[in-house]
């Protein structure tokens, strides 16, 4: 194996440059703040001050991370929906590495990769809809549409940016009994503004 560093890998910024950037950003922010106060809350100086203090914070974080590496978060959170066990972390990572779209017809909901079906679940088998927000610097909502097929538990995982998701949400209002209500709408809105967690959107009513 080669020990050559991957040129695409991010490079660490030298601590000295981060320190100089921190001092410069703080000084500019202080200068702009003084002018902001003395010029009747000038929008220009206020903007400069805000940007400068934001840059100072970023440089400070770089310096902190060089001396105190950020801890990797762990969570014992589990998706509370049928089919979650079938969607392992490795499977989720593989799906996220490729563009996943979603489509449906009168019979089933299916995820599609490059025009080919990946997974599917019949409308009649859907028993739960959950939004999962995974931890990370850029949290990505994922829709877990799950249920049973005979004795087997199955489900499809739909990224929130999947093409066709808007149409699927409208179809779920028509095809899933009790989905189109205020509680479901409030849950979706709450999930879209969250950083992590599990948000049960709908469960099939007991027969």
Short description:
This protein is of the alpha+beta class and 207 residues long. Helix content is 38%, strand content 24%.
Description of the molecule:
Residues 5-10 and 72-86 have low confidence and may be disordered. 38% of the residues lie in helices and 24% in strands. The N and C termini lie far apart (60 Å). The chain has helices at residues 15-38, 43-67, 89-96, 165-175, 182-192, and strands at 101-104, 108-113, 116-122, 126-133, 141-149, 152-159, 197-203. Helix 1 packs antiparallel against helix 2 (43-67). The strands form two sheets. A four-stranded antiparallel sheet has the order 6-5-4-7. It has a three-stranded antiparallel sheet with strand order 1-2-3, with no helix packed on it. With 207 residues, the protein is α+β, with helices and mostly antiparallel strands. The chain folds into two domains: 15-67; 86-203, no CATH class. Strand 1 (101-104) and strand 2 (108-113) form a beta hairpin. It is built from five helices and seven strands.
Mean pLDDT: 75
Helix-and-strand structural type: alpha+beta
Q: Would you list the SSEs in sequence order as H and E?
A: HHHEEEEEEHHE
Question: What is the C-alpha radius of gyration, as a whole number of Å?
Answer: 24 Å
By DSSP, the count of extended strands is 7
Q: What's the structural domain tally?
A: 2
Q: In percent, how helical is the residue content?
A: 25-40%
Which parts are unreliable, with pLDDT below 50 for 5 consecutive residues or more?
5-10, 72-86
Task: Please tell me what the overall shape is.
Answer: elongated
Specify the biggest β-sheet: 4 strands, antiparallel
Tally of DSSP helical segments: 5
Classify the beta-strand content into a percent band. Answer: 15-25%
Distance between the termini: 60 Å
Strand order of the largest sheet: 6-5-4-7
